[in-house]
Each structure stands twice: as structure tokens, then as C-alpha cells.
Amino acid sequence: MASGYRNGVHKGGSVKVDRPFSAPPSSLRPSSSFKSHRPPPPAVRRSSPSSLGGASAKYDDSVSGRVRVAVRLRPRNDEELEADADFADCVELQPELKRLKLRKNNWDSDTYEFDEVLTEFASQKRVYEVVAKPVVESVLDGYNGTVMAYGQTGTGKTHTLGRLGDEDTSARGIMVRAMEDIIADITPETDSISVSYLQIYMETIQDLLNPANNNIAIVEDPKTGDVSLPGASLAEIRDQQSFMELLRLGEAHRFAANTKMNTESSRSHAILMVHVKKSVLGAEAAFSYENDNPYQSVNNFKPPVIRTGKLFLVDLAGSERIHKSGSEGHTLEEAKSINLSLSALGKCINALAENSAHVPVRDSKLTRLLRDSFGGTARTSLIVTIGPSPRHRAETASTILFGQRAMKVENMLKIKEEFDFKSLSRRLDIQLDKLIAENERQQKAFEDEIERINLEAQSRISEAERKFADALERERVNCQMDYMESIKKLEEKWVLNQEKHGKNGFTNGSYSGEVHVGAVNEESEVKMLLQNEMNLRKAAEEEINILRNQLSDSMPSEAGGDVDVVKLQRLLDDEVHQKKRLEEEVMVLRSQLSQLTFEADQNGRLARGKSGNSFTGVDPPSHPRHSPVKDAVNGHMASITNLHEQVGLQKIFSLLESEDPNVRIHAVKVVANLAAEEGNQQRIVEAGGLTSLLMLLRSLEDETVRRVAAGAIANLAMNEANQEFIMAEGGIKLLAMTAADAEDPQTLRMVAGAIANLCGNDKLQMRLRSEGGIKALLQMVRCRHPDVLSQVARGIANFAKCESRVSTHGTKNGRSILIEDGALPWIVQNSNNEASLIRRHTELALCHLAQHEVNAKDMISGGALWELVRISRDCSREDIKALARRTMTSSPTFYAELRRLRIDL
Questions:
Q1: What are phi and psi of 231, to 5 degrees?
Q2: Tens digit of each residue's pLDDT (9 = 90 or more) over 641-650
Q3: Residue 849 parent element (H or E)
Q4: What tens digit of pLDDT does each residue of 802-856 get?
Q5: How many CB atoms lie within 10 A of CB 110?
């Protein structure tokens, strides 16, 4: 299997760069403007909780910075989805707690803590922000930084670090995003960026930008110990497009090959070196000029500081095992070279983690180049990539332990700065010219403003004078008219008075008396009318008051009744919500109590087994940290692996029938530990161990024996050849009886796991139903423990998948056995469960049931169609989402119902 350049460029070809390579200038060019959108950073950036440091330092001071490690899980590929469909992933992530669980078997796992845990759904943007962005910010502040990807081949290191994202910008890797942030943060007039792109292939350093330069020497400064590569090409970067062209050129020359583990496996370590020179105080001066008095800013000018940072982005070649990758010939030699260099890196990490006096950095060129990244002055962030498949558990465990050891390495961060007085002089000259021009502009603007104000004042005065004259004239005319009207009225009154006194006078006393009497009568009549009107008004007011009092007396009772009803309704609603919440809390507390009881029981028996019995085969509980008891158990389990060679399986099986309960318990634990190893399962079955385990379920009532025996049977049931033997021995009836009698969640989990493994066999479906296996699986949901429910959901999904398969082949035509046994309501209810494992298995079960047309009407009446629509839109798994959409569109019954409901997929 021959290796060649990535993207099809043949080995030995030479490609020229569009622009000449040039080193960055020794001095900065003068700047006419400064950035003001971002305040200048202090001597050390204050890091966020996700950043790499936590201390501050002044110029030339050192601070401590531990290597930060994040772990990223790759989603299952098509091969793993097909091969491991019936088995759980060996990795369980707890991102909210930043923990990772690595499963050993069905009931045991190891827990590890990292600085960040990234699930298979983590976006490229989030990976960059939590892993690389703090390092990039440190480089912009004058520190050296390193971002490195480590892991098994095919787990996504190049995807995480070097993905270009030409078609989809959201898929861009750390290299592209880091350069975007660097370019956005610098000022082109004063700062500079230059890059080198190298690969370490077969212990030789080659230039990916100039393939003719294929044996670059490493030079170390005898005084400072700094490592440099003077023979490497150095390209100056001005914009993002030129950087993308350099990346494409380098990727075309990188060695890659097709192996069984990866269709395009990297056969070399790729290293992108980014050199950043940045002027710091220039940005501060520009900011001060734009916001404060420019004359004052000149007096506060200080010599600009140039900070030089170097960023290493390292995409390591993947570690691989020869018998898994299928490497041969030249590819085999490449794999040996890769594993040797990674082994040398691991030795250095171990020496630094253990504070060893000697660190073997000279064992490989990779460790010589990275001597500043581990134990040096650089801020380092490591991302380890792992896969979910249980077939590669050993490689996954090795990768996780490498990350754990790297977290113990401490670096002493050191900033690199220097003053640039020439740049300050040029900047002051430019600033002086700006101030002179600004002064002249302000003077002219001031004169223009004075002229404008004068013209505006004269215009306002003229307008005011005109308005005052018009108002004065209108007022004069109005006064004259009022005066003439008053004179006229007085003349008319005088004429009337003259006529009245001239005709009558006061001599006619009778007439005068009559007038007086009439006036008095008229006055009395008016008074009476006024008194009547007052009485009517008073009576109306009294009646209104009476009505108001009656209304006020009646309203409180009615309103009070409404208020009481509303209050009563609210109290009832609160009582219902409170009851529901308490029921949920009781369920959670019961689950936690069961788990704690199980762990306490295991710890107590472990201690008793260690004190006096040589057959202590307990399952050690998982702890985040190692303890002396756990180390003893691990060593004891290692000795159990070859126990059948020393004692003999028949002797161990004979102890299962011992009358001593302690001997019987320890014997069944030994058999369970042996059954956890795939290589021992065939020997156990051939020696009659499966029959002995089934006899324990039939004859004994000890909870511990039943739990461990059920777990051993679950392990043996993973083998298809053993499944038929279990059914022939009546194992499904015994498991169903155990499920009906047991109350312990861990026992039910083991029984459910064994039945779930049997549900994945096409040949055993009818016997599973006839012997009570499906009924027992559905009855175990009474426990409500998440682990038990996840195993039940997995069994239902396996059974539905087998039914779909036999229906497709035409060997089964009737309704689903699951629907006939009443499993559909539980599947629909838990298809949107908060637990990811339960939700994933129930979603798969719904999709498989929907593939058989005869189940469509029952699923529509049972509400499954709405869950299928939700899965096709909101499911986190793209394969399940596509399966749900394809199933609904291919079924005539579902399609007609969707059209009737006017639902578009």
C-alpha cells in the first residue's frame, strides 16, 4: 500500500507560490490611523474561565500555566453504525460535569475529568472557542502558544485542526479560525504576520510550501535554548485569502495513505508556525487621540512596545495498530516511524508529569520542536480525539491516559516585548501634521460659524420687528373700534333714559304701586320654583345615596364569592403542581438511593473479600481517582483472567453448588469476571458454565447471586451462538421469572440487558414472545430507574429492527408483536425522554415499526405519527432523522394522513 501526497499531488513534484516568500521587516512602517474598536490589552490578558491562565505578569516576568486538555468524541461512522448497532458505546460523556466514563463491561466503568468535554454534536466554532481561542489571544499579547491534536487514526484530528471549510464555512478548523482572529486583531500598517508550514515524515523535517527543501535542520540557541528552523520558508500574510492559498498548497504536499482505519490517513506530523509582531502602545495612543484632547495625548506618548508571539498548530499523525490498520510495505515503515515519535512524545510527557530530572526531548525531532510547548514558556492547549466504538477501547483508553498525564505538566509563561523608538518618532511627526491640519480646520470652522450666527441673528431681528409692527397696527384698529362701539351704546342708553323720565317721571303713584306689586309677586313665584327645585334635587340625591349603599352592600358578597372561587382554584392548581413536582423528586431520590445502596454494598463486599477470600470477583465501583482498594481489585481482576488455566473451569463451576453461601457468591463473581472477556466466553459455554448459571437463577433466591449471574448471562448473550443455547436451556423463562421477582435496579438492569441482547436475533422472536421474554421486558419499566429503562428501550429497538428485517424479506406479514403486546404506548411516551439513551432507542423503535405498512393504522391511532414528525424535524441524530422522514414518505397510509392534516416534512 503506497503512500502519496494528499489531494493527489505526486511525491517529488514542485509547486511554486504565487507571491515571493519574504521575512517580515525588522522595523514597523509608520501608521496614519490607529484602531479604536478594541482597547489595548494590558501586559497580560485577563483570561475568561475557559482560557488557559489565571495570573498576570509585567514585562519579562514569568507566570505558571498548566497544559489544558480537552477531549472530543467522534460520532459513529457508517461502518460502526452497522457493526455496533446492538451494543452501547464504550464512552459516556458528562459535559456539564466535564467528565468522561469509559466502560469496561456492562456494569463497570472508569471516570476521568478534563478541562473540557466535547460531545459528538459540538460544533467547530465551539471547539475553537474553548480550546484554541485563549491560546490565540495569548499569542497576540506576546506569548508563545501551542494547540495540538492527539488521538487514534481516524478519530478526527485533521478535521478538528486543519479543515478548510471551502463548501461550508461552519466546518472550518482551528487553523483557519485562528488566522481569522489574528488578522482581525492586528493593524496592517504597524503589525506583521508570517507563517511556515512543515511536516515531519520518517524523522525528516520537510517544507510543505517548498517541497525541494526536504531536510531542514533544527537550530538551538545555546544561551536561551530556543528552537528555530532558519531553513524553513517564511511567507508573509496580508489577508485571509492568501493564507487559505498557502494552506491548500501545504495540504497538497502532505503525505497521506488509505488504510483500513481511514481512507485518507495522515502519514506525517503537520506543524503550522505563525509568527506575529504587534505594536501595542500605538493602538493605545490612537485610542487616546480619538477619545481625549489630542494636545494632551501628545504629552502622554510613550515608546511603542512590539510584542512577538509564536503560535504552533500541530496536527499529529494518528497512532495505529498494525493488525487493525492493515499497513504493509512502505506504509508499515511509515506507521512504525509515527508510533516511535508518538512514543517519544509520551515519554517526555510522563517525565514532565512526574517531575523527573531527565526529560528525553532529543529522542525524536517532534519532541525537539515541541520542547517549548511542554515544560517550556508557551501556553499549551491539547485536544485528544477519541471514537465511540467498543472495538477500539484499548486505543481509546491509551489516548485518555495520555491526556490525563499531559494535564499534570506545568509551563512557565513568559512575555516577549521590545521598544521601538524609531516608530515612535515617525508616529509623532505624523501626529504633529495631523494636529496642525486639525487646528487650521477648526479655526476656519470657527470663523464660518461666527459668520453664520451673525447672519442668523440679523434675520431674526428683522423678522421680529416686522411682526411687532403688524401686531401694533392690529391692536390700534381694535381699540378704535371698541371705543366707537362704547360711545354708541352710551348714547342709546341716554336717549332711552330721557324718553322714560320725560313721559312718566314719579308723579303717577298708582302706576308705580302696581309695578311694585307685580315685581314682588314675580319674585315670590321665582323663589317658590327655586325652593321646589332644591327639594327635588335633595330627594334625588338621597335616593342615589340609598342606591349606592345597597349596591355597596351587595357587591362585596358577590365579589368575595368570585375571589374565593378564584383563590380556591389557584390553591387547587398549586396543589396539583406541587404534588406532581414531589412525585418527580421522589422518583429521582429513589433512583439515587438505589444507586447509593448498590455502591455501598459493592464497597463493603470488596473490603470483606480483600481481607480473607481469594475468589473475590466483585465489580469495583467507578471513582474519578484511583485508590489503594481499587488498585488491589484491578490487580486481582488481572489474575482472574487466567484463573481457569491455573485452577480449571470445572473446579470453579463445582464451587457454584457449594453449601457455603460465601463460597457460592465468590465463585459466581469469578465466573462473571471471566465472562466479561470475549476470549473466555466460548470456553465457559463448552465447559457447562452457562448451564450452571441458569441453575443458579432457578434454584437460589440470594439477590447478589442472581444479579451477578444475570450479568454473566448478559455477557454470554452477546454471542449469537450462545443465544440459541440459552433459549434451548429455558433461559428466557428463568430471566422472566427473575424480572418478576426482583426489585433491585441493578439486578433488573442485568436481566434487561440479557433479554435485550436476545432480542437482536431474528430466529428467536417467536420463542421470545411465547416464553414470556417480551412481557418480562415490558414489566421491568415499573422500576423507573434510568439504567433499567435504557436497557428495556434497547431491547425493544433490537426487536423492532429484527421485525422490520424479516418483514422486508417477506417472512412475516402480520402486525408487530410489540404492538400486539401493548408496547406502543410506552414507546410513544418515552420517545422524547430526557435521557439520551432511552430517547435514541425508542426513536429507532418507532422508525422500525413504521417501516411495515400493516402497523401504520395502529401507530396513527396511538399518536406515533406526531412523534415521527417530531423526530424528522428535531432529532439530534441525522441518520434517525433521515430514517423517519424516509419511512413516512414511503408509506401510503402515513402519507395520506400527513396530507389530510396538512403537515409538510
A1: -85, -5
A2: 555 555 567 7
A3: helix 836-850
A4: 888 887 776 667 888 888 888 889 988 888 888 888 888 988 988 988 888 888 8
A5: 19
**Cell numbers given for 397:** 483508553
Task: Find out whether 240 and 317 touch, Cβ atoms under 8 Å.
Answer: no
By CB atoms closer than 10 A (0-12, 13-18, 19+), residue 615 is: buried
Mean pLDDT of 590-610: 46
Specify the 3-state DSSP secondary structure of 65: strand
Number of Cβ within a 10 Å radius of residue 873: 11
Torsions phi, psi for 6 (to 5 deg): -65, 150
Q: Which three cell numbers stand for residue 252?
A: 497538497
Residue 428's alpha-carbon distances to 39, 295, 435, in angstroms, are: 20, 12, 10
Partners of residue 419 on adjacent β-strands? 305
User: Residue 510 is placed in which grid cell?
Assistant: 298708582
Q: Is 313 exposed, middle or buried (0-12, 13-18, 19+ CB in 10 A)?
A: buried
Q: How far is Cα 325 from Cα 173, in angstroms, rounded to an integer? A: 26
Q: Would you state the pLDDT for residue 314? A: 95
Confidence of residue 501 (pLDDT cuts 50, 70, 90): low
Q: Which of 59-73, 146-160, 493-507, 583-597 has the lowest mean pLDDT?
A: 583-597
Which range is most confident: 135-149, 310-324, 623-637?
A: 135-149
d(CA 621, CA 640): 17
Which alpha helices (H) appear in 61-120, and where do they start and end? 78-83
Cα-based distances in Å from 216 to 200, 211, 232, 343, 360: 10, 11, 7, 22, 21
Q: Which residues contact 258 (CB under 8 A, 6 or more apart)?
A: 1, 264, 265
**727 with 758: CB under 8 angstroms?**
yes
Residue with cell 382554584: 569
Q: What is the pLDDT of residues 686-712, one digit of tens each?
A: 777 778 788 777 775 677 887 888 888
Report the C-alpha gap between 692 and 582 in whole angstroms. Answer: 45
pTM passes above 0.70: no
Q: How far is the C-alpha of 668 from the C-alpha of 712, rounded, in Å? A: 9
- Give dist(CA 790, CA 788) in Å, integer: 5
